[in-house]
Amino acid sequence: MIEITDSNLQSEILDAERLALLDFSAVWCQPCKKLEPILKELAPTYEGKAVIAHCDVAKSPETAKRFGVMAVPTVVFVKGGKEVDRFIGLQSKEQIVKKIEEHL
Asked: How far is 55 from 22, CA to CA, in rounded Å?
């Protein structure tokens, strides 16, 4: 999983030609801690097809603000530099795979 910051958002997510899944979380968030291993497990499966990335809202507040993140975890799907979908809260691996497959 790639770590996204205010400084690398453009190059890693917005300029990416493939689908990007951007997970916004915080260190104090329990559902975020449950979501992280699911995303880490999925990352190798989609290597070359999709970017799976993480953004700590406390460390990169401008990125969170840019996407209007008001709650964590929030997962935003970006394609061609534009948001195409999102979900808020913990989702199952199956639900996440379904969303990824919809946008590939």
From this structure: 7
What number of other Cβ atoms are within 10 A of residue 63's Cβ?
A: 23
What order of strands is seen across the sheet that includes strand 50-56?
A: 2-3, 50-56, 19-25, 74-79, 82-88
**In the annotation, is 29 catalytic?**
yes
Q: Which of 19, 20, 32, 35 is catalytic?
A: 32
57: three-class secondary structure by DSSP: coil
Phi, psi at 64, each rounded to 5° = -60, -40
Give the tens place of pLDDT for each residue, 40-97: 999 999 999 999 999 999 999 999 999 999 999 999 999 999 999 999 999 999 999 9
The model's pTM: 0.95
Query: Which of 1, 2, 26, 29 is flagged as catalytic?
Result: 29
